[in-house]
Each structure stands twice: as structure tokens, then as C-alpha cells.
Amino acid sequence: MNSELKLKVFLGVLATPLVFAVPIFLAAWTLNYWEAWVFLAVFSTATALHTIDLSLNDPELLKRRMRVGPGAERRPAQRIIMVIILMSFFLLPVVSGLDHRFGWSNVPAGLAILGDALISLAYIVFYIVFKENRFASATIEVAEGQQVSSTGLYGIVRHPMYAGALLLMIGIPLALGSYWALLVLVVAFPALHWRIVDEERCLVTDLAGYREYCSKVNYRLIPGVY
């Protein structure tokens, strides 16, 4: 791992808690928010461990994962989709903080802890996915030498990475003690569906064997449902 990537990893690990803490506590307008502190500890630790593992064991995959956002996408539809998804991730902590401030929700402590567990499970899914698929880029593209992944979680659903993202998006508002923030998912879920559909168009065209893979693995995200 070169020094530039080491610096990016170091800054990313440091910045992660701030990126979420600032909107959460500004919206909540208080530091007396135990759900937020637990969430930040769980999320930041999971992100740090995940990033450090990739930096040590697969820096090339980490580089691909760090190319993220609307500007990194080549397909016009994906640029729009990424704007929607990133806005949704920004709104989740903001709405949760406002919910805490004005007392809109009364989420039991056990359900908040369940949310933290879902976040942890999401990162376990990410870890497994990256061990199975070294081409799991954050952008929609087919890399040179890429092959269809069809084992492990990819033998159950076609997009296990997005299944993990789904767990994460549900877990964040629950962990922050907000039912109202779950409404953000009304926008995020259709955007995720759009991303999957557009990505599959790309993969069917550009990745050899993907059409046959789709005929064998019927579900995109949730076994028996979707």
C-alpha cells in the first residue's frame, strides 16, 4: 500500500465519526443522546475495521471502493441514482436527530440495540462479499479480467452487497431511535432498485456469463421475495 493510500485510509477513518456526528448532534441540538453515541461507536468501529482490512489484504479493491459518488459514475442514470442515495444517507442522521430533539418517536432501547446489530451484520455481509468478489467496485463498471461471482452469498442473491446496504439503511434510523427516519427509505429503496436494474443491464451486456447466472439465481436482493 503506497503512502497516498495510507493517508487516505487514515483520514477516512478519522473523518467517519465526524461526518455522522455533526449532522446528528446539530439536528438533535444536544449531546444527551445515548443512541447516537452507541451508533457512532458501532458504525465507526465497523467502518474502520473494514477499511483497515481492505488496506492490508486487498488495496486494489479498496482503491476501487474509494472511487464513489455521482462524478465517478459513467452511466448517466447512475449519476442521478447516486445523488438520491447520498442525499438519503445524509437525511437519515438529520431526520433522526430532529426526531430526538422534538420527541416524535418512542423507540424502545432494545429496538435501538437491534439497529446497531443490523449495522454490524451489514458489515459482516460486506466482508464476506469482498472475500468472494474482488471486483466489487463502488461504481457500475466491468473491469478487465472480471468474472461472474456465483458462489457463497452470490449463490443465494445476485446482489449481496446491496442486501448488506439494505440492512445498513434500516439499521441506522433504528439505532438512532427514530421511526420517522425510516420514511427516508421510501425514497432510498426505489433508488436502490433502479441502481440494481440499470447495473444488470450493464452486466448482461458487458460481463460474459452474467445472463446465464441470472437464470440460475432468481432473486436480486431478498431470497424468496425480490
Please supply descriptive tags for the structure shown above:
mainly alpha; 8 helices; globular; Four Helix Bundle (Hemerythrin (Met), subunit A); about 230 residues; single chain; about 70% helix
Overall description:
This protein is an all-alpha fold. The chain has a single domain, classed as Four Helix Bundle (Hemerythrin (Met), subunit A) (Up-down Bundle). It contains eight helices and no strands. Helix 1 packs antiparallel against helix 2 and helix 4 packs antiparallel against helix 7 (185-206).
- Report the sheet-strand fraction: under 5%
Helix % is: 55-70%
* C-alpha geometry: globular
Number of domains: 1
CATH A-level architecture: Up-down Bundle
Q: Might you state the CATH topology name?
A: Four Helix Bundle (Hemerythrin (Met), subunit A)
Number of helices: 8
